[in-house]
Amino acid sequence: MQYRKMNGGKDKLSVLGFGLMRLPMDKDHKIIEDKAMEMLKTAYVNGVNYFDSAWPYHGGESEPILGRFLKTIERKKVFIATKLPTWLTKTRQDMDEYLDKQLDRLGTSYIDYYLLHALNGKRWKELKKAGIIDFMEQAKASGKIRHIGFSFHDKYPAFKSIVDNYNWEFCQIQHNYFDIRREAGIRGLQYAASKGMGIIIMEPLLGGKLAGNVPAEAEKVWRKSKYNWTPAERAFRFVWNYPQVQVVLSGMSTLEQVKENLKIATTATANSISADEMKLYAKVRKVYLSKMVVRCTGCGYCLPCPYKVAIPFALGIYNDVHIFSNKQRHKWEYDFFIPADNKADKCTKCGACIPKCPQKIDIPAELERVVDYFKD
Ligand code: SF4
Ligand code: SF4
Asked: Tell me: the pLDDT tens digits for 38-75?
């Protein structure tokens, strides 16, 4: 296992972090505890020391299972990360109450890395009004939190503004070789690092898509590589190549994945991918992009839709199914992640979004295709 220091701090974090959001589940969607414990233990004994949970993961069961795991090991040998559910905290009092409940669930007196979960520009403004800065200062002064950061889902300008607005110690952003510009993107990664913040990466495999079926055209490109890396290994190595990144989170759901990721993490060094190899990543990115059926960049300028259709999300999943050729998985994503009130079939074809789209997409026509595609 490789370790990286969090911005010159004392903490030496394992480059592979265990994300507790995709633990194995039975048919009733309950975590299979003995399997999950075996996975956590295997990661721990092989050097993983960063464990990431959040209030809502597994319907609230992720933090308690992490708490039970902590009882089986030496607490101070690991770093625990969890997140304040920012969409549920409306008042200053809510913030204290959630933190105390999380400490209780985890059975610990302190959280090493505490994040404001899923920040965006709007939510950050609301939280500031509700007293989040006082909460963060007090929680740190009391010793309940060691380091404060945030996870992020919005665009780069909102990211920069949040970074500039507080003396953060770290952030958690989505990044992988396919989506180098989405959300905070490379710009955000470099900007946060330039401000001295630590960087935790989530979705290095794009929810497992980059570790699954590789399209034949992409496979042809990878055959020119000097390395016989697995798809997962290529994706992990890309994010570990950034010297600014400390931890890459993986939401592992089988013991085999844990073992494979542990193996890859033993040689995860920064600045180790050659310029020629980087060109192959760029070519594969182009292959994936060429398979997009809608030119939607996810910019969100078409929002808000007066009928609350989640336009970029619906078009994004529709694109993914064509890029990654896995209808079953993407149908599940479409059903699971987009609430019924925001699905493509709620489009009334009012046309309000069309002039706002810089890509000149006929959005209602594309949404009709989405409805048709996912109807069965
Ligand atoms: S055309 Fe459809 S998606 Fe666009 S704004 Fe109207 S209802 Fe929303
Ligand atoms: S404005 Fe156009 S490109 Fe941007 S998210 Fe909406 S549909 Fe996609």
From this structure: 999 999 999 999 999 999 888 899 999 999 999 999 99
Q: Nearest CA to 188 among 165, 169, 163? A: 163
CA of 137 to the centre of ligand 2 (A): 39
Q: Is residue 189 part of a domain?
A: yes
Do both 95 and 192 map to the same domain?
yes
CA–centroid distance, residue 364 to ligand 2 (Å): 12
In the prediction, which pLDDT does 119 show? 92
Q: Are residues 317 and 220 in the same domain?
A: no
Query: Which residue is closest in CA terms to ligand 1's atom 8?
Result: 305
Q: Which of 121-135, 175-189, 204-218 has the lowest mean pLDDT?
A: 204-218
pLDDT at 140: 96
Q: pLDDT over 90 for what percent of the chain?
A: 68
Question: Does any domain span residue 200?
Answer: yes
* Domain region containing 75: 3-279
**Does residue 289 form part of some domain?**
no
Same domain, 274 and 341: no
**Which residue owns the Cα nearest ligand 2 atom 6?**
302
Helices (H), the chain: 33-45, 62-70, 92-106, 121-130, 132-141, 156-165, 185-194, 216-222, 231-240, 255-265, 275-290, 311-324, 327-337, 363-374
Counted domains in the chain: 2
Q: In terms of pLDDT, which residue wins out, 297 or 246? A: 246
Rounded to the nearest angstrom, the distance between the alpha carbon of 149 and the centre of ligand 2 is 30
150 membership: H or E segment, kind and range: strand 145-152
Residue 234 resides in a domain:
yes
pLDDT value of position 74: 95
Q: What is the pLDDT of residue 206?
A: 80
CATH number at residue 265: 3.20.20.100
Whether residues 274 and 326 fall in one domain: no
Neighbouring CB atoms inside 10 A of 212's CB total: 15
Q: What is the pTM of this model?
A: 0.83
Going by CA atoms, what residue is nearest to atom 8 of ligand 2?
A: 296
